[in-house]
Amino acid sequence: MSAHPKPTDAPRTPRFSTISDMEIAPLYGAEDLPPRDAIGRPGEFPYTRGPYPTMYRGRPWTMRQFAGFGTARDTNARFKFLLSQGQTGLSTAFDMPTLMGYDADHPRALGEVGREGTAVSTLDDMTELFAGIDLGAVTTSMTVNCSASVILAMYFAVAERQGVPMTALGGTIQNDMLKEFIAQKEWISPPEPSVRIIVDMIEFCTREAPRFHPVSISGYHIREAGSTAVQEVAFTLADGIGYVEAAVARGLNVDQFGPRLSFFFNLHNDFLEEVAKLRAARRLWARIMRDRFGATNPRALILRTHAQTAGCSLTAQQPLNNVVRVAIQALAGVLGGVQSLHTNSMDETLALPSEQAVMVALRTQQIIAEESGVTNTADPLGGSYAVEALTSRIEAEADEYIRQIDAMGGIVRAIELGFPQKEIAEAAYHFQRQLDRGEKVMVGVNKYQMGDEPPIDILRIDPELEERQAACVRAFKAARDEACAHARLDAVRSACRDGANLMPPLIAAVKDGVTLGEICDVYREEFGVYRDPAWL
Amino acid sequence: MPPARTLRILVAKPGLDGHDRGAKIIARALRDAGFEVIYTGLHQTPEMIAETAIQEDVDAIGLSILSGAHNTLFPAVLRLLREKGAGDVAIFGGGIVPPEDIARLKAEGVREIFTPGASTDDIVGWIRANIAPRGD
Predict the structure, then answer these.
(1) What CATH number has the domain bearing residue B30?
(2) A interface test, pick of B9, B11, B43 with most A CB neighbours within 10 Å
């Protein structure tokens, strides 16, 4: 053997691995392909190659940019801007007090009103948020979880004011509490009552709002918290299993509510791993729904998903580089077969995105859809040795995690034991140490750094907004029929206690002036408050 | 000269958001670096953080804030510590904080703020160079 091997013979590093640290072989070949029926055809079981036969030839994905900041009026203006630029669906970001079930005038809201999203405490706020937008003509995604039942009640009430029937409403509310306990950590009550509220919403929407998706089972936040791609698939599908089990226990028919479940995945930097991850998740979910739950309706077997490029992959350093990262990530999503997509803006590590940055992000999707040519044929990467091998491997490893969770007694018990939380924290720490040692690269952060960088313009939130918003809440309460509001709140409390579906009394309550914070206070009183186990 | 006492550091997560990836990584890195680390868990009010700092007799508090509420939360913790006679507890932090806000917060008494991209080694090095055990 030569002491100086030819450059082509010598690997640059002894071990090649994905960003999730999954080892990658020098070459994949025909021997790495799974059986033909595991790949299948687009629109056919097990849906590895996509949920629909024609994929984007029929209809491109929904371009859905997440937006929300300041007051409902500010966000309404951003919505109208995005629709005017060719966006095809709305996606609403709420501020932290709204997400945690506090009105803008609550002491815990101090400093947080309108900062990470839009502030919604009352039906007036919600009405203003969608003013001039026909809810029968757009689909709306709402990213909200522990207070989702109240927000959905408000959405239905706004639609009623607009004269749009519930049966005509399309959209998605995130409403995935299990991943909150695992990853995003925004909660009110413990897991069991949280799941009960979600099943109420699945039951209500299946019956009354059949075009609405009452839960979006989300891996996005699991990945942002530092999980690997395999963990993202495993814990997301385990959460999905948890919801399906709870809904079946309620007596709901899996073939009826199954099509109402939707998913939300992350799109990280590692291109082939991400494409494979989406394909693996679809195949594994189809098998779970068929084999574990006995679903026979094809629409109940299909994993339909929204996806968002990875916020945690963006860098504050050299922020223009983020445009390139987002383009690669979005392309992975498209080649992975997503139904809806949000592309992050280049300035999102610094603040909420500016209008110009949002525009580039939306244009990135339009360039992929209308210039790149990848939408001309369904699943162009299907049959790639490397992609199929990674797909099979991610599916198998995720399935192994799900078996471990089953052995613990299911996902709620696993969460109580801290299992997914600890696995994710371990992966996050492992990746950080790899970065610190230079084993993994973030361009501009631990390699190719530059000295002083010129600052870029970022969106600033008016500090006086908070007091104005708090004053609006106080004025709203002062103007309502107090006795009626209290009676409506008591009806919500009764439903919490006797197990009746919460949605009808919630809709009645928000229409008669009960605020989001007041309803969430009832949840706190009736169901208790969950405390963070604070594992390290 | 006796060896210096091991530094006790409180890693705290104030505010309503649940972004604890950074806080947990830092807590673990500080512990691996040999410091005594206490982690508060999520959704802490400034009052809860100041109370824990005093009860646990810490030398420093690292606040992790990614919600944009830094201009409210850092000064609140500083003020409460001073009111409780623990103004010598060093406050540092990390999160998404614009440069002009960092300058203002430092003028108010925050010792250092680390922004996205800081390595755990940078933070450990800064603590070793800048934080000393509080006097008895």
Answers:
(1) 3.40.50.280
(2) B43
* B36 assigned to some structural domain: yes
Q: What is the maximum alpha-carbon separation in chain A? A: 90
Does some domain include residue B46? yes
Q: For residue A266, what are the CA distances in angstroms to A106, A263, A301?
A: 33, 10, 21
Q: Smallest Cα–Cα separation from A336: which of A259, A273, A263?
A: A273
Distance (Å) from the alpha carbon of A533 to chain B's nearest alpha carbon: 7
Is A401 in a helix, a strand, or coil?
Answer: helix
A172 sits in which H/E element = strand A170-173
CATH number of A57-436: 3.20.20.240
User: What is the least distance, in Å, from the CA of A94 to any CA of chain B?
Assistant: 12
> In chain A, positions 424-483, which contact chain B (CB-CB < 8 Å)?
425, 428-429, 432-433, 435-436, 442, 445-446, 455, 458, 461, 463
- For A283-296, what is each residue's pLDDT tens digit? 999 999 999 999 99
Using CB atoms, which residue from A442, A531, A536 is nearest to B39? A536
Both structure tokens of A294? 């006995």
Residue listed under structure tokens 């824990």: B52
Strand partners, B130: none
Average per-residue pLDDT in chain A?
94
DSSP B72-130: HHHHHHHHHHHHTT-TTSEEEEEES--HHHHHHHHHTT--EEE-TT--HHHHHHHHHHH
SS3 A277: helix
Contact yes or no for B98 and A351 at CB 8 A: yes
Residue ranges in chain B whose pLDDT is less than 70: 1-3, 136
Nearest chain B Cα distance for residue A535, angstroms: 8
Residue A1 has pLDDT above 60, yes or no: no
Distance from CA of A21 to the nearest CA of B (A): 18
User: Is any Cβ of chain B less than 8 angstroms from the Cβ of A529?
Assistant: no
Report d(CA A162, CA A190) in Å as an integer: 35
> Tokens 């750094």 map to which residue?
A449
ipTM of this model? 0.88
For residues A436 and A251, is the Cβ–Cβ distance under 8 A? no
A176-220 pLDDT, tens digit per residue, is: 999 999 999 999 999 999 999 999 999 999 999 999 999 999 999
Domains of chain A: which residue ranges? Answer: 57-436, 468-527
B12 interaction partners in chain A (CB closer than 8 Å) = none
Q: Specify the 3-state DSSP secondary structure of A261.
A: strand
| Domain range for B99 | 8-129
Chain A residues in contact with B28 by the CB 8 A cut-off are 425, 429, 536
**Cα–Cα distance, A330 to A308 (Å, whole number):** 8
**Chain B residues in contact with chain A using a Cβ-Cβ cutoff of 8 Å:** 15-21, 24-25, 27-29, 31, 37, 39-43, 45, 67-69, 71-73, 96, 98-99, 115-117, 119-121
Q: What is the count of residue pairs from A and B with beta carbons less than 8 Å apart? A: 103
- Does the residue B49 lie in any domain? yes
